[in-house]
Amino acid sequence: MHIRRTLTVTCSGLLIASCSSGSSKSTPAATGAATEAASASASGKPVTVTELDFTIALSSKILTAGTYTFKVTNSGKSPHNLTLDGPGVSDKATSTLTPGTSGELTVTLQKGTYEAYCSVDSHKDRGMDETLQVS
Q: What is the C-alpha radius of gyration for the chain, rounded to an integer number of angstroms?
């Protein structure tokens, strides 16, 4: 009986060790590359966006291709968001921002024309629709 317990404990320990060693394989280079990619995708050239009832004001409507972070502030009295559509970008949006709050949207823009609008209710139809030119 004592030998059986010893074998069971030993085998269990080996199984745990083999499982944990397989799941923790990570090279410093792979970890660094993943961190750099996350940082690069988390920030871009800033574009300031102010949303009111029912307009969108952008700090620039003419951009060059690259990664941008749209820093959106809802200065209106209604909930709003910012949604982008264009080459390589389809329905990318901030969360719905309550009045007085801010949010960010980071996207990589290619050459072409993009639409920046509020997709909350019928806000787009009420004037919250702008065009961006990317060269």
A: 25
